[in-house]
Amino acid sequence: MDIVINGTTETVPARTIADLVACKGLAAESLVVELNQRIVKQEQWPQTQLQAGDRLELLSFVGGG
Amino acid sequence: MTTDDALHLGGVRFTNRLFTGTGKFAANAQIPRMLAASGSQMITVALRRIDAQASQENILAFIPKDVTLLPNTSGARTAEQAARIARIAREAGCGDFIKIEVITDMKYLMPDNWETLKATEILAKEGFVVLPYVLPDLPLAKRLENAGAAAVMPLGSPIGTNRGLETKPLIEMLIENCTVPIVVDAGIGRPSQAAAAMEMGADAVLVNTAIATAADPETMGRAFDLAVRAGRTAYLARLAEESALARASSPLTGFLDD
Fold first, then answer.
1. Are A60 and B48 within 8 A, CB to CB?
2. Structural domain boundaries, residue B23
3. Which end of chain A has fewer beta carbons closer than 10 Å to its terminal beta carbon, N or C?
4. Side-chain-side CA neighbours of residue B104 (13 Å)
5. Inside any domain, residue B253
6. For chain A, which residues make up each domain, given as ranges?
């Protein structure tokens, strides 16, 4: 299934956001996920299904002034 | 002189007028030590797409819960992008404060005042505590006030330059004519420059680079705290007048030879 992650199309086996975070080995506690311009809170990741063509933003807070 | 000299912003009472940033520290572990040493009660953070190569440390974990987070919209080039970043930051649990930073000029990193005003209009309506980072311009500052900005944050000199208050006369116009607090942001490189900003009546200063890239950020944080307190105290005490000619401090009547 092809989805757009941070502006780049990727083929991913994951069916949910939780799957995707796990298979990419991302640190969940610092991750902010936006699916089709809507924030998905961490407790909703396991039941949030991904569909072909979805646009996903994987963000995190970093140092800045 | 009033005994309660707190700064109230967005329903939060700040007894420390040094705002700090999380950028450019050699290690995140320096941030809580700097916060403790400086007493700073508000600190900026930025939001970025994750970088698989970069460290996945959660910067928020290094900021004590009693310190107010001030997410910025850095990376935004339009008002709409800034608004989107602000909404994400709030949804992610960072609270209602937002520093609007819209930059289209990559050479001097000058804030785009026009897009910043538009973003302020959008976000103030959505209940954000909006702190726009701008090039000091009095008519713009009045428009920001009318749009619902909680404060106006004029730059002293370009971001990260440590050149101090190059825009001093323009910032003074804001201090004299605005009703919202004026927070001098960007370019303050030395504690003496922070003191100068506070002496002239700025309500607070925001310092990142000068602290984070000092050889000892923790001690430099303390130095900035002292300077901000000194400058603020001097402002409240009302500075003595300058004079072109000397005015003797001691009696000038003759003494031994008369």
1. yes
2. 7-49+57-237
3. N
4. 10
5. no
6. 2-60
Is B99 a residue of the active site? yes
pLDDT, position B108: 93
Residues of A in contact with B208 (CB under 8 A): 65
Enumerate the residues of chain B whose CB falls inside 8 A of the CB of residue A22. Answer: none
Q: What percent of chain A has pLDDT over 70?
A: 100
- At B50-104, the pLDDT tens digits run 887 677 788 999 999 999 999 999 999 999 999 999 999 998 889 999 999 999 9
Is A8 an interface residue toward B (CB < 8 Å)?
no
Q: How many domains does chain B have?
A: 1
CATH number for B37? 3.20.20.70
CB contact under 8 A, A61 and B91: no
Name the fold adopted by A2-60: Ubiquitin-like (UB roll) (3.10.20)
| Whole-number pLDDT of residue B3 | 60
Interface residue B174 vs chain A (CB under 8 A): no
